[in-house]
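User: Show me a protein chain along with its predicted structure.
Assistant: Here is one chain, sequence first, then structure tokens.
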Amino acid sequence: MADTLEFNEIYQEVKGSMNDGRLRLSRQGVIFKNSKTGKVDNIQASELAEGVWRRVALGHGLKLLTKNGHVYKYDGFRESEFDKLSDFFKAHYRLELAEKDLCVKGWNWGTVRFGGQLLSFDIGEQPVFEIPLSNVSQCTTGKNEVTLEFHQNDDAEVSLMEVRFYVPPTQEDGVDPVEAFAQNVLSKADVIQATGDAICIFRELQCLTPRGRYDIRIYPTFLHLHGKTFDYKIPYTTVLRLFLLPHKDQRQMFFVISLDPPIKQGQTRYHFLILLFSKDEDISLTLNMNEEEVEKRFEGRLTKNMSGSLYEMVSRVMKALVNRKITVPGNFQGHSGAQCITCSYKASSGLLYPLERGFIYVHKPPVHIRFDEISFVNFARGTTTTRSFDFEIETKQGTQYTFSSIEREEYGKLFDFVNAKKLNIKNRGLKEGMKQSYDEYADSDEDQHDAYLERMKEEGKIREENANDSSDGSGEETDESFNPGEEDDDVAEEFDSNASASSSSGDGDSDRDEKKPAKKAKIVKDRKPRKKQLESKKGKDPNAPKRPMSAYMLWLNASREKIKSDHPGISITDLSKKAGELWKAMSKEKKEEWDRKAEDARRDYEKAMKEYSVGSKAESARMERSKKKKKKQEKQVKSKAEKKGATSKSSSSTKSPSKSMSESFKSKEFVSSDESSSGESKKEDSEEEGAASPPPSSEESASGSD
């Protein structure tokens, strides 16, 4: 038999991840070399205690247990290789390679067996799964429940982080099965124990996230948070950044520790550890090391005996152990003199700190945004009040953060800070527009030239001049002023006339007939002028002279091609910005030259507008005459219809005195339409009355004959 066996493409299971490599078995022991890292694991033959052959997901596997309790798993064997391995183990290691199959029933209840550093969950005699207790980072107990948490595996894409076991209560007195289970796990697990080798301990520190009071034990390689319910192990390698931030009240300090990967509490992840200190709280600290060790390890950054403010001691110790700089607020100073801004994020109030290289918000939920990951920022007016505004940040990944309810007095300071850091501002062009409502909002950028704003101002002036010209010759086409009191009076009188007319039993139908044209006439009278003005606003005469350009626009049109040639590939936005800078830097004499050209263009425009307005006034006068004629015809038709109704009422007035009373009363609308008619229409109305009078007499004769 050969003295060695070699297997390629064998996978070693380490903390849940599979590492491929080469496995070699010799008389001296078992050697596995990782193909990726080159790391070599060597197991001496004298240390081997047991060998198990079993079927696994990647074919067949070999599990080796050592006398000191360590477990090694290798997968990727073929079934035909069992006999060769079994004979090798008998000959060289004097071990029987046992065959044990895993249980695949799918049951989730069974018994737990602790063997060395291995927890095995069995159903009957067959194991379902095994957990190396060296991978356990935390063990917590509850009512009839034990929770195991595992170390983060950076090499694996997906890692098992937590397993919960339900332990049914037993009738045995004096023995708690949950505590017994937890003690068996803790005796072998890689869980932090409160030992005396801590460098120093800070007692009962106020922690905002995770919330509570915690003892912080400082160890050489990790930080231990010990609370009443939960314990956390934070390796220094997971600390990304340290922040020391003054509270707005100037009496407290935040110490923020950024973590990756975060600490976990159930399903909750804490990416930031936030401690709150009072500036008045002092402490005297003695390190659990001799002076030589302190000097050798920390090189003067720490001493054995230190005293000072509590927040200074914590930050100083953390800086020395983590070996990272502490970030503090930069030169930003808000309206009230504080280095932060009070705002709200996700319905919780907090503080936003503008830093030299980013923003950080504390405390619920904490947010840290670096400048290099910001796509743009946006200043938006508050949705419910004009006394505050919103500050929006969108990252290059598309994530948006909205910090709302910021006092408007902070706008100028924050805008200057963002502008100085050269961040993209989405609504920079609207800043001057906000100046109309908030004087404090636009006190930092008044010297910059905005070409678009200048053009809008020029167009606004010209529109006002046109509006004044059109109002002089518009005549009757202007809108009537809205007088609520007068309209109410009209409606009241109309209903009064209807009420009196409806008192007679026989004329209900004729009353309704009279009301319909009256209502229609009123609607046409009120809405027609507004409709005309809307049409006049929408319609634009193509023959009208074009408005003159401002001095800046004339210069820009003449210089646009030159700017493009000097800056090839420049965008439209950058071109406008560059043009504004050039215009601003231009001498006064050159600007006066363009001002004269603009003045000449304006005079030419006014001259053309006068000629155009003469022609348009003649056309409008002709249109007005035709409209008056049409309106006159409509009034005649309406008055004829009203006279017809009046004669029908007068014919029936002889039967009842109440009818004559109602007929004698005329509504305001009826009278005004009668008076507004011309003399010719009155004559035609009287002729129409004469023509309309025979039918009632014929009716009377017919009734008399009856």
